[in-house]
Design brief:
mainly alpha, 3 helices
């Protein structure tokens, strides 16, 4: 098998991985929606949108990678470069806008520091704060 065929196969694999990620992510988001019975309707909807949006974002990343791999495997023509450039631009724009909508920040900004426990782990108790009325003070002379 020649290098050109391997590169083309890798691009196809990345495309299938992108589509599969979106489809499986959507199914997973639906299953989670159906099993979240204790949540209010608005909270369940919000979480469903987050789960689905994350699946779409990950799928878009695979599709952009497939486009980049494909540019390596083909002999560049002006039309081919313009079409692939436009596809990458559209997919990158979609990734940015989805990130802003889901996380409330641009992709290059740092996420705010939050101390969320892992799923299934109870949250840590708040730090002990001293109450001045119950402080033990040294005797005054």
């Amino acid at each position: 098998m020649e290098v050109h065929s391997l590169i083309s196969l890798a691009a196809q694999f990345m495309e299938w991985a992108g589509v599969g990620t979106m489809v499986l992510g959507a199914v997973f988001a639906l299953v989670l929606l159906a099993t979240r019975q204790r949540l209010s309707t608005s909270e369940a909807y919000r979480r469903f949108r987050l789960d689905l949006g994350r699946a779409i974002l990950l799928g878009l990343e695979f599709l952009v990678a497939a486009d980049i791999i494909r540019t390596v495997s083909q002999r560049p023509t002006l039309d081919g470069v313009l079409v692939l450039g436009l596809i990458v631009l559209i997919r990158t724009f979609l990734s940015f806008t989805l990130t802003v909508e889901l996380e409330g920040r641009w992709p290059w900004q740092h996420a705010p520091e939050t101390s969320r426990p892992a799923p299934g782990v109870p949250p840590a108790p708040p730090p002990h704060r001293r109450n001045p009325e119950h402080e033990v003070r040294p005797p005054s002379h």
